[in-house]
Amino acid sequence: MALDKFFRRRRAQQTEGSDIPDLWSKCPACKENIYNKDLEAELYVCPRCAFHHRLSARRRVDVLLDPETFVQQSGGVRPVDVLNFVDTETYPARLLRAQRKTGQPDAILTGTGELLGLELTLAVMDFEFSGGSMGSVVGEEISRAAESSAVAGLPLLLVAASGGARMQESALSLMQMAKTTVALERLSKAGLPYISLLTDPTTGGVTASFATIADVIVAEPGALIGFAGPRVIQQTIRQSLPEGFQRSEFLLEHGMVDLVTDRREQRAVLHSLLSVLTRQPEAKPSQADTRQAAELQVSGGEQ
């Protein structure tokens, strides 16, 4: 017995070690183990079941924009604990942990860049930062992005990923719904397009404001999109909800979103939309984009 315990302890110790690289990921949907290099090549979409993994704001920028074209504008505004909010811990402690995790001052990253050569303003919410919750900084940065986009004559693409308003900022968070809506009106008056890309999840006050007032609303496959969660709705109305309720495909069928697009096709689709809305000629796809589209057609046929 003592010898058995000794060998069990040695085996456990061998699996521990910070020098062991993390080479594989498990798909949350199909439970398939995926080599991380293959997952990265598929833009973090499961090659077996097409499940779309969540992306950080920085990674989303890399996926969407042409290499080395992104110029960051956000980061000059930082959140403040004006309410001295405390629940299980202080609000500053929560902020510090989220800032260390993401390297961002808040749950938003904005800037300008190029998408297949077309210049635009991009705003990306980061779900890794406190669930992408909308606070005063998020509202301010989105408003600034919309206003600077109107001044520069650029279209705006916003990628939403949020659990809703940030409770630690109370009514100050809810005020961002009106603030961002007014700022986005400047784009409309300037005749510039605003496209919203809804990712998993997009809920709460974000869904009820700037995320769903775009000229074109695009969603990723399988994304949870809604105001209140399906469990809350079901408990409130005391009725069973239809299959796929609040998922992007259900919302497309019922007219809430205009398009559901696979992440591996988004660059081409978004460029086509922006080219039409800005009356610019469509760029010829690069060899990489053409090869990727061909691979998608093949994999789609097999599935």
List keywords for this structure.
about 300 residues, alpha/beta, seven-stranded mixed beta sheet, two-stranded antiparallel ribbon, 9 strands, globular, disordered C terminus
Written overview of the protein:
It contains eleven helices and nine strands. With 303 residues, it is α/β, with parallel strands linked by helices. The chain has helices spanning 2-15, 36-41, 57-64, 91-102, 136-152, 170-189, 204-207, 230-237, 248-253, 266-277, 287-302, and strands at residues 24-26, 33-35, 71-72, 108-115, 118-125, 156-162, 194-202, 216-219, 259-260. The longest helix has 20 residues, at 170-189.
Provide a compact summary of the structure.
This protein is α/β, with parallel strands linked by helices.
Secondary-structure element series: HEEHHEHEEHEHEHEHHEHH
Q: CA-to-CA gap between the ends?
A: 51 Å
> Helical content, roughly?
40-55%
Beta percentage is 15-25%
Give a count of the beta strands, DSSP E runs of length 2 or more: 9
Unreliable segments (pLDDT under 50, ≥5 consecutive)? 11-18, 296-303
Question: How many helical stretches?
Answer: 11
